[in-house]
Amino acid sequence: MDIVLVVIGLILCLIGIVGSVLPVLPGPPFGWLGLLCLELTDAIPNNYWFLGITFVIAIGIFLLDYMMPAISTKKFGGSKAGAIGAILGLIIGLISPIPFGFLIGPFVGAFIGEIAFNKTKGSQALKAAFGAFLGFIASTFMKLFVSFIFLGFFIWDLVGNWNEFF
């Protein structure tokens, strides 16, 4: 049973890495589930502090992923309408059949929010939209970084307890 949990855990960690780039899958929570599978084996001593801290990190990164485009829109001079537009654009981009809609959505949403509701000039609206795009890119790298760290923890625990499995 331990080998099955290790294989499932490794697959979940790899899905976490893929999910960090594809916005349809929540990357860090999948990586955490991989760590949980490894910790559930008999060969690895359970460390509930480790699982608790990594769980909080995974959920925090998951939530921050949806807030980053709005936060960076505000940092680049966007208004509340631009921030809301970035979030709505991200959601619409995720469900739309447009290729790379998840990349285009926050940019277009922030731009439309600024132009339509604040009547800001085109250059300021473009600056706010660029901020939304940068926020999305930053959150993607953040998720990818955490997912690789989770995979590193997985491999570290597995190699450190290799003799217990075989």
Series of secondary-structure elements, N-terminal to C-terminal = HHHHHHH
Mean residue pLDDT: 85
Helix content: over 70%
What's the gyration radius in Å?
Answer: 19 Å
Shape: elongated
Strand content: under 5%
Instruction: Count helical runs.
Output: 7
Largest sheet: none
What class do helices, strands and sheet pairing give?
mainly alpha
Describe the model.
The chain is elongated, with a radius of gyration of 19 Å. It has seven helices and no strands. Helix 2 packs antiparallel against helix 3 (48-75). The two termini are 12 Å apart. The longest helix is centred in the C-terminal third of the chain and has 39 residues, at 122-160. The model has no long low-confidence stretch (mean pLDDT 85). The protein has one domain (2-165). With 166 residues, the chain is an all-alpha fold. It has helices at 2-21, 27-39, 48-75, 80-95, 101-118, 122-160, 162-165.
Keywords:
166 residues, 7 helices, 0% strand
Summary of the model, kept short:
The chain has 166 residues and is an all-alpha fold. It has helices at 2-21, 27-39, 48-75, 80-95, 101-118, 122-160, 162-165.
